[in-house]
Amino acid sequence: MSTVLAFLFTIGLLVTVHEWGHYRAARACGVKVLRFSIGFGRPLLRWQRGETEFVLALLPLGGYVKMLDEREGPVDPSEHGRAFNRKPLLQRAFVVAAGPAVNLLLAVLLYAAMHLIGIEEALPILGSPQAGSLAADAGLQAGDRVLALHRTEAPAARPEDSTWQPVPSYAELRWQLTEATLDRADLRLRVEGSAGPRELVLPLSRLDASEVDAGLGRRIGLSGPYSAARIGSPRPEGPAARAGLREGDRVLAIDDQPVADAVQLRERIRAAGIEGGMPRALNFRIERDGRELSVRVQPRLGADGGPPVPRIEALVGGVPEQVLLRQGPVDALRKGVERTVEVAVLSLRMLGRMLIGEASLKNLSGPLTIADAAGQTARSGLIPFLGFLALVSVSLGVLNLLPLPMLDGGHLVYYIVEGFTGRPISEAWLDRLQRGGLAIMVLMMSLAFYNDLARLLGQY
Known about the structure:
With 460 residues, this protein is α+β, with helices and mostly antiparallel strands.
């Protein structure tokens, strides 16, 4: 239920904001607005305010603002001056662009609010890189903290060189990895850890831009932020509890092989061999209250929709070390603008790469993925949910500005053509373009829905 409510709130808010932008711009230009509808289909609630009817309809996936327009029906001669089609070109373009513009403005305010309240994020301390991966071959190790980075195409950098960009959080590191992979650029990292301070190069240019999707981190070999190899909440009567493991125990080694972090702990447990139809017992060396103890654990076979693997039936891993990032009002607003621009540009680049086949079509998401993300972020707290709202608001604004018929961007293209030719596009061509735009939108929605189902079924 929380997922459904979060999804309805998200769509309702962002659609209302988008249509409110069209509505206010139309009113400012003297256009008569006949109806302001949130949703499509049968009206659930309607009320009249002045000359505009406000409607809440059955299907919440969209909305519209119906304006007085001679192309949609007869208009009384006394109201010709208030018809949308009679307005000057720049005013019509302003009304159309106002919807996406307000979505982008909302994203700026949401990102600014996040930075003003304070964002608690994991520090850029790395978990164990996967063996044989780019990260492992580059020399990264569990516990390494990324201090700064820069693109290798930049001039050779000195410690004080401005080309080095500080990395305050793991989220920022992930963002930079995505952008660098899209650009086929290598990253030079400045890190410190058990091997001491050093610089190394992460050769992201070896990856194809089509590999930029939710699994990019795994392809690079980064499993996520560092999490200590601790035992948490053993299941009653499970292997961990039967062996005497307790919440908070830190695992130092398994079968005399050191364990660096939670990633290695999970790998060692799952790698336990099968003897006589059951997993081999493992010798844990743990630290508890400052003392080292030896514990023998007999895993069980278990499965989560895949082949059975050895499990100890306890949570594995501690909470990654966090940092609170907070800005003053002016800096928060600047950060809001910067992040909105970055997300919008990245979205456009991803769409362009998908169009020419250089990025995976798996990145296209539909309502099921949005609903799932809405529920998860809402349960995680205010800041994650604000970030999700901002991301979807940017996506909605960018999508509507695409030069496709049926979208706001398509209408803006019509107006650009009208500005150069001095006359509007003919009704016959408008009909053809609208049909083509409808076909493209149906194709995109079908692909997005297929990706949603594939994610839910575990195929991606």
